[in-house]
Amino acid sequence: LGNPTANAITTTANGGGTSQTFQKGMIAVSGSGSYAVTGPALTEYTALGGPAGSLGWPRMAPATRTGAHAGIAQGFQKGTIYTSSAGTAAVLAPVYAQFMASGHETGQLGYPTGDAVQDSAAGGATWQPFQGGRIVVAGSKRTVVSGSMLAIWLARGGGAGSMGWPTAPARTLRAQGRTGALQTFQTGVAIAQGSMRTVTGPIAKTYMFHGGPSGVLGWPTSVANGSAANGSGWAQRFTGGTIFWSGSAGTHALAGGKVLDLYNARGGVNGTLGWMSASGHDRSGIGGTYAVFTNGRIYSSNAGTAAVLGAILQRWLSAGGTRGVLGWPTSNARSVHGAVVQRFQHGTISWTQSRGATVRRS
């Protein structure tokens, strides 16, 4: 320790005790015992306020680890200072409890690489970096983010980005015949199955409402893609369907099948139908399914799968739609001798510029 550099100081802080500094360290005497603090640990301890600061009084001598987990740890009343090849940092509450639960420095996280950070983004959180990931404490949630989940979360802006703070640890699950990992965040989901994907915002909320990877939509197969067509919005594809969001139509999921196939064949969000606004089952007549879009509808039944748009759609709906005299559509509209004609179970609707839409029953 060398020679003393100051007189001993007695304080009542953190339960009380006496400390004295020397050329190469400090001796601290309290109800926890008498211990020396030296080297990089002393620099960290002093920066955090010494015995009167956030760590309190030392409660053990430095403990040295060798081998794969080489480093030095010294415990204090309110935390521990770690020194390793990753640097010197203190781990304190509220991060400390999760660090211990994760196996401390011999676990997946390893040694800290920096002190904890108080972050005001997205409602606020405390996070601390470690060799193997981060611990994030947001409200009552104490969560580890590591590996590919950490990489993609940081790429999306961390807590201040589109996903917010983590709300649960990563978990492995098997769904739709595939195995992957999922971690939820305040406003998004990170998924590792094949390529790493994120599902964020209203699309993420709808995705998880439908069961996430274990639901009808399955695993994401693309990132969300934006389009300025038909009023603008976003769409994201999954193994079992697509989720659409637009400011005018809201967020809606469309499971894979004939309706989605026809919609995509007609240009999807960039085509004539526009953005999805509703869907459901129609039990009238022979029964079937339908999806409503900003510029038209698609109906699918045993009679066929067809898009109904514009003046023909309005005329058909005014005649009762699937419950009316015409029944379900059997084909898409087509041009016939200068008119646009669409066939239904029990007749046709023809449209011309001069005459508008007229019904002919068969």
Index terms:
362 residues, mainly beta, 4-stranded antiparallel sheet, 6 helices
Protein model, in words:
The chain has 362 residues and is mostly beta strands. It is built from six helices and 28 strands. The chain has a four-stranded antiparallel β-sheet with strand order 1-2-3-4, with helices on one face. The chain has a four-stranded antiparallel β-sheet with strand order 5-6-7-8, with helices on both faces. The protein has a four-stranded antiparallel β-sheet with strand order 9-10-11-12. The termini are far apart. The mean pLDDT is 96.
Précis, in short:
This protein has helices at 39-47, 95-101, 147-155, 201-209, 258-265, 310-318; strands at residues 9-11, 17-22, 25-30, 33-38, 63-65, 71-76, 79-84, 87-92, 117-119, 125-130, 133-138, 141-145, 171-175, 178-185, 188-193, 195-200, 225-227, 233-238, 241-246, 250-255, 276-282, 288-293, 296-301, 304-309, 334-336, 339-344, 347-352, 356-361.
Summarize the topology.
Elements: E1 9-11, E2 17-22, E3 25-30, E4 33-38, H1 39-47, E5 63-65, E6 71-76, E7 79-84, E8 87-92, H2 95-101, E9 117-119, E10 125-130, E11 133-138, E12 141-145, H3 147-155, E13 171-175, E14 178-185, E15 188-193, E16 195-200, H4 201-209, E17 225-227, E18 233-238, E19 241-246, E20 250-255, H5 258-265, E21 276-282, E22 288-293, E23 296-301, E24 304-309, H6 310-318, E25 334-336, E26 339-344, E27 347-352, E28 356-361
Antiparallel strand pairs: 1-2, 2-3, 3-4, 5-6, 6-7, 7-8, 9-10, 10-11, 11-12, 13-14, 14-15, 15-16, 17-18, 18-19, 19-20, 21-22, 22-23, 23-24, 25-26, 26-27, 27-28
